[in-house]
Prior knowledge:
The first copy, chain A, has 12 helices and 12 strands. Chain A is an alpha/beta fold and 346 residues long. Chain A has 3 domains: 2-56, lambda repressor-like DNA-binding domains (434 Repressor (Amino-terminal Domain), Orthogonal Bundle); 68-169 and 303-331, 3-Layer(aba) Sandwich (Rossmann fold); 171-302, Rossmann fold (3-Layer(aba) Sandwich), CATH 3.40.50.
Amino acid sequence: MSANLKSKKQITLADIAKKxxxxxxxxxxxxxxxxxxxxxxxxxxxxxxxxxGYTPNIIARNLxxxxxxxxxxxxxxxxxxxxxxxxxxxxxxxxQHNYEIIMTVSQESTAEEIKxxxxxxxxxxxxxxxxxxxxxxxxxxxxxxxxxGVPLIFFDRIIEGLGFHCIVSDxxxxxxxxxxxxxxxxxxxxGHIGGYKNTNIGKLRxxxxxxxxxxxxxxxxxxxxxxxxxSVSDGYYGFxxxxxxxxxxxxxxxxxxxVALGVFKAAKELGISIPNDIDVISFGDASYNQFLNxxxxxxxxxxxxxxKIALELLIDQIEGRLLIEEKKIVxxxxxxxxxxxxxxxx
Amino acid sequence: MSANLKSKKQITLADIAKKxxxxxxxxxxxxxxxxxxxxxxxxxxxxxxxxxGYTPNIIARNLxxxxxxxxxxxxxxxxxxxxxxxxxxxxxxxxQHNYEIIMTVSQESTAEEIKxxxxxxxxxxxxxxxxxxxxxxxxxxxxxxxxxGVPLIFFDRIIEGLGFHCIVSDxxxxxxxxxxxxxxxxxxxxGHIGGYKNTNIGKLRxxxxxxxxxxxxxxxxxxxxxxxxxSVSDGYYGFxxxxxxxxxxxxxxxxxxxVALGVFKAAKELGISIPNDIDVISFGDASYNQFLNxxxxxxxxxxxxxxKIALELLIDQIEGRLLIEEKKIVxxxxxxxxxxxxxxxx
DNA sequence: CTGAAAGCGCTAACAC
DNA sequence: GTGTTAGCGCTTTCAG
Lengths: 346, 346
């Protein structure tokens, strides 16, 4: 009825078997190059398969095999430098290990997140790689995965204490370091456009900021802090909110790079110059950052590396080479010194 | 043997049926809320399913159903603004239509591309959405898909004449327009870092450039033209090549936005100032372009729109609502005026 | 080396 | 309303 795959009947093992007057089993074995088939039969089978344009039906194979060599990936957003780089790396590694990735995007919605996890479970992926949404609080779905024994690894945006391995950047220390750097440069009125406190990165990046401030005996002005999500629009509205207060901080530390871009956007609209009128530093960066005006001094995260390690860990677990308890890998970060936060002006 | 999904046995229809002392078929129907099952039975089944944590096995379902509600996506690269935006849109639309996307990344390798297409076919996706690599010349794999009647749509990087629908930006006209604009601004020595001529976008963006030049009776200096791929590194090496010639053009029109960034990178290394020493315009842009120094005047492509239309077209075709002949949709583009190509200096 | 039998989990078709 | 039968395409087991 439709122009889809069913319209032309697909070639099956049985078709090949019939033409060659041998059994389906022989064909199956020949195609998988098993040892107990004569070279001659193999050759005949392989040739005919090619001639007929045979494509194995993985669905059928998976149904008997019970594993799919497929990994489910759930991320909150694609068009964000950190994730774009991480997934690029994940796809590369997956290809090397002959796993297929089924990526889903939650769009920062917990309902979508749950829907996708269920869908991936129904597809019987061998394991799950997840970075949760900025709103995820409810852990029951993950608890359920734990009970079922589904291999699952969290990366970047994680939930601890559920027994799954986690891999993250050193959020707290990186934040601490960059705020400390700003303090050394002479800034004292330091604001923070942070993430929701229910997320690990929101919480830790904020506490790194707090620690640096306290260590330097600097006052943390609550008016200089706003919390929200991780995207450009959150930075934009965050800055607008700060702007509507009586006074602005001298420099703002943003929880992500997109948030910093949002600040740029808002400042531009308001005719406020960065870094002359107000300065910005961020957690995270982007490959194109070097071309910005000004380029943002920020904490560089090893996104590709995080993706790679997360996937390798997951594959190890799937293939039974990893049976240890919940483990948290914290990747070191470093500051990428650019054109913001150069010196405090007087 | 491993900590994978098989370790804990999955609940099946049969398990539920046995506990309830009814048949598998009744359970299957109840779960799919079919009309010929009593409300009472339905309730019992649904409750028990939830209690046992039943997850339908889509693999098994697909095997009998013969369609998978799954679409294969093959792109050359993720971390490139055009694709990031297009796939974000594709995922969004897919979610709305309840299709699952299986995205694969060819990394600009034709071998990977073919491997992924075969793999997606083996997974029996209902259709394919493809943007080919910069190296794709061999069309036999697509010919094969045509013969099999696989619904397939090309977008952005297309192959015409094979009978598949295509959707692209107006590459030639957009290029013509922006080069014409540069000419109006007084530039005469205009170079082009272009794409391989075997690709539609490489060819058309170059011919748009050529047309504008010819129309203005400007000389096209072969030394001002280099061809290559579409990424940052291609722009970088392209510019280095131009630099090693005797003279540089006044302005360079690049085939993609990443190529323009590559030019920025090379120029920065060489101590050449953009737009003072040499100027740049590009086909394509990025959301963060507005924060660049200088922001690049370029042709804006409706990436999200292209992804959306491509997918909707494909779904129409899969579901049998589209039976017309090969059709090419050309999306209008517009110039995004920024800080490059502002005026020719004397 | 080869093949017959059984089954993966689900659904469509048809009977009761 | 409900159940029986058969089959999707493949692989594993085991007998020859």
